[in-house]
Amino acid sequence: MLLRHTPKEVMDRHAVTINPAKTCQPIGAMYAALGIHGCLPHSHGSQGCCAYHRSALTRHYKEPVSASTSSFTEGASVFGGQSNLLQAIENIFTIYDPEVIAVHTTCLSETIGDDIKQIRDKASKQGLIPEGKHVIYCSTPSYVGSHVTGFSNMCKGMTELSESTGRKNGKVNVLPGWVEPSDMEEIKRLAGLMNVPITLFPDTSGILNGPLTGEYHMFPEGGVTVRELIGAGDAIGTLALGEWCSADAARHLDTKCKVPCKVLDIPFGLAATDRFIDTLRTVAGTSVPDDINRERGQLVDMMSDTAQYYYHKKVALCGDPDQLISMVEFLVSIDMWPVHIVTGTPGKKFEKRIKELTAGIPCEVNVRAAGDMFLLHQWIKNEPVDLLISNTYGKYIARDEDIPFLRFGFPILDRVGHQYFPNVGYKGGLRLLERILGLLLDRKDRDDPETTFELTL
Amino acid sequence: MAIQNKPAQWTAAEVKEELLKKYPPKVARKRSHSIVINEGAAEAPEIQANVRTIPGVITMRGCTYAGCKGVIMGPTRDIVNLVHGPIGCSFYAWLTRRNQTDPGPDGENYMPYAFSTDMQDSDIIFGGEKKLKVAVQEVYDLLHPKAIAIFATCPVGLIGDDIHAVAREMKEKFGDCNVFAFSCEGYKGVSQSAGHHIANNQVFKHLVGTETNVKEGKYKINLLGEYNIGGDEFEINRVLKKCGITNVATFSGNSSYDQFCTAHLADLSCVMCHRSINYVADMLEIKYGIPWIKVNFVGAEGTAKSLRKIGQYFGDKELIDRIEEVIAEELKAVEAALAEVRPHTQGKTSMLFVGGSRAHHYQDLFHEMGMKTLAAGYEFAHRDDYEGRRVIPNLKVDADSRNIEELVVEADPNEYRPRKSEEEKGKLGEAGFKFKDYEGMIPDMEKGSLIIDDLNQYEAEKLIEIIKPDIFCAGIKEKFSIQKLGIPMKQLHSYDYGGPYAGFKGAVNFYHEIDRLLSSRIWGYMKAPWQENPELSATYVWE
């Protein structure tokens, strides 16, 4: 047993988090900022934050992740980090020459009360920001929310660049939420099939799934450009995918530039994808092409072909709110029973939404926001499941309890594929089903006795 | 930027100039002291090290918390590591260092767990001590561990939570659980190094010397500064055991609480990573009379040399003979592996930028394979790790070092027992035996090589562009930008999930791994056929 000290009995805990189901804000801000073309994320705090975030993102993507830090020492922590940030801005533009620096704060700089806007303005006055270059920022104290909140805050920070000229540009803004570069690519492909011009931000495709060519570009081809971000203020509307990840930025854009918005779920699975496509069609005033109808039909076809293997199978899930909501809806739609659901991110409305989605399930459903994987494991010990869905850390539970395990979410440290193969859209739904089915059938093939071992399934 | 195949027509001075060219003047001035050319003089040149990283420069370095909780305390299986702070610091240090661990007969192993107080804004405003106390209590109620270690993260020092008072109070309350704390806020010092020092101090204060139930053995040593990445400690222990040497305590790979507590009963301290653990080695000597020597179990030659050194120290013929037998036996496989890989590795070149000792130790392995190290440097070392301990009296104590506690230790009135008399030490010295000595990296490097402290991303890229080594060694953050350039990159923090690389078997593993990296077909596929031959031929020849 790997987690041999985890007891079955659940003891109420009020202070200690064990095996977290979240991490802190700044890494989300860093990930989002990587989705801007020519952007260097900058961590305003001590070196360790930046090193940890870069390491975690690198392990997840197997790609270079460049980001800089204000390298606080004890002196900066006492006297404030202004001089460190001013120096950093000057050095970054001189040495690395990015289009944008995206500054996020840390618990350190937040606790001492550094005002990034004021420091940025000072840098601007001192001429440290070259003509045509930008410094954007967001506040990401690690002691509030989670990595998801940090992602959302940086998305909101991007909308500070947006301007309204009073003339609409005919484009739709799409905030994809915290999904993989492959998912972002897929969203662009779907919009392309529908002939809807979109501004997708952030967009990490091309940046965190780059090719090996013998050349290294610190700022690869991909990412939303500053021009596009400025233009986002003239869009006809914004689709924000994920209440937790994307809604704040979309609403801010509405307030600032009068771009109306609609908050949708991240399009994992049939129903959420249907809503996304239908909304995009409606706001852009186009029709849905046959190609997409066919993709949808293929997903429904696979669902029906393999339905018997999902039926009433119990699932435990751990991850981030927006991803879990769509995933739970998808599982319920194929007659699976998500019975234990944990996110580390706080928010009671998560629990409410999951309760609504699972209302029709004839067994008890445990759901917890601001929970941890220790609790999830204990729930599983009390009510075993047929499938576990979580980030890589779930593998310890999966091995101990001998449960088929689907890696989904952040971080995935021990498998590849998420960089390249999407989970969103109908194609993504096919991939999710393929993987779930493979896990369930591999288990059946492993466990079936000789007498009932099947050739065809 | 693309790598061109060009002959090596550069001098170290030209490379240095190129590295500094793009920097703003102040940055260039500061960096120039950290980039040193080895002229091959009798005395190593002075290098600037252990100074602040320049803000905005993309550094490899981490923080004090990482050095304390991640490196030194992380590998011990039966101490609950409770991180007091926002969730991230605990999350990122959760199982990411590859410290392998044998859960032992008692099975007490908290390595796969991450414990945090997950501080919220209300804790920052009103103070987090109360929450910390409840968290310690909850850990105790749930797990009843023999020890709980509390680690401070950045905001804890700023808001003034007294974690040491909490530790004292809870330790007294429990009676059967040692609770102690580390003020290892990330902003202290200039790198992980400060965290090593803080960890050393607290381990020495709260653990060492508290138990007397020591392992039996004729030749008892401590192995200091070995973290069992990829199973290195398993292999070193296998070799030691085979020689009949008893390892009382490893600091801290594959270690348990009891090992720290009985370390004062060993008769010799063997220091692997000088940077991270020399403080404990010194304190063990002053308080308990245990001398220390520098060893290096990375590389087959180094391993043999280190074993012989241990044999010479104990001076027992039985042990010395046994060590020679073991070396002879083990070297057979080493020599066979070398014969296999050397045709592919001989004459190839490497660069190593990592750690506080690995960039030095791993040069031995490359040397054994006939490879040349063109440039090397540490991420968080001090001048003595480059130039040797002779420079210690002249080291400047700056503001960043001054705030790290220096423990004042005296000989213990009851427990101090000099393992060697001054006369015995003198005799060993005459025979060339060196106590408490480390000559550093530079004297082992070739003339004309470059030594660069706290290398950053820009400089790494430039080095590769100009020098084009056959292999580059650093950490995960550097891995893929290097490999995008088509240069194989070997992680020497995590070993790319391989290992062990220490000891004799480790050396064999490493030879094969480097051979694989250098000989892999993968690097030949970067250009498509139409990119290599873009011209369309006039007529296509059909079958």
Provide an overview of this structure.
The complex is a heterodimer of chains A (457) and B (543). In chain A, the strands form three sheets. Chain A has a five-stranded parallel β-sheet with strand order 12-11-10-13-14, sandwiched between helices. Chain A starts with 16 loop residues before the first strand and ends in a 10-residue tail after the last helix. Chain A has three domains: 25-157, Nitrogenase molybdenum iron protein domain (Rossmann fold); 172-291, 3-Layer(aba) Sandwich (Rossmann fold); 293-451, Nitrogenase molybdenum iron protein domain (Rossmann fold, 3-Layer(aba) Sandwich). Chain A has helices at 25-33, 47-61, 74-79, 82-95, 107-112, 116-125, 147-158, 181-193, 226-231, 243-257, 269-284, 290-310, 321-333, 348-357, 373-382, 395-401, 425-447; strands at residues 17-18, 39-44, 68-69, 100-105, 134-138, 172-175, 198-200, 237-241, 261-264, 314-319, 337-343, 366-368, 387-390, 405-407. The model of chain A has no long low-confidence stretch (mean pLDDT 98). Chain A is built from 17 helices and 14 strands. In chain A, 58% of the residues are buried. In chain A, 45% of the residues lie in helices and 13% in strands. With 457 residues, chain A is of the alpha/beta class. In chain B, helix 10 (232-243) runs antiparallel to helix 21 (503-519), helix 13 (300-314) runs antiparallel to helix 14 and helix 14 runs parallel beside helix 21. Chain B has helices at residues 12-21, 25-32, 64-73, 87-92, 121-126, 129-143, 154-159, 163-174, 192-206, 232-243, 257-262, 274-288, 300-314, 317-345, 358-368, 383-387, 399-402, 422-430, 457-467, 476-484, 503-519, 529-532, and strands at 35-37, 79-84, 115-116, 147-152, 178-182, 219-226, 245-252, 268-271, 292-294, 349-353, 372-377, 450-452, 471-474, 489-491. Chain B folds into three domains: 1-63 and 346-388 and 440-497, Rossmann fold, CATH 3.40.50.1980; 64-186, Nitrogenase molybdenum iron protein domain (Rossmann fold, 3-Layer(aba) Sandwich), CATH 3.40.50.1980; 219-344 and 395-430, Nitrogenase molybdenum iron protein domain (Rossmann fold). The radius of gyration of chain B is 25 Å and the shape is globular. In chain B, helix 12 (274-288) links the parallel strand 8 and strand 9. At the A-B interface, strand 1, helix 1, helix 2, strand 3 and helix 3 of A face helix 3, helix 4, strand 3, helix 5 and helix 6 of B. Strand 1 (17-18) of chain A pairs antiparallel with strand 3 (115-116) of chain B, so a sheet runs across the interface.
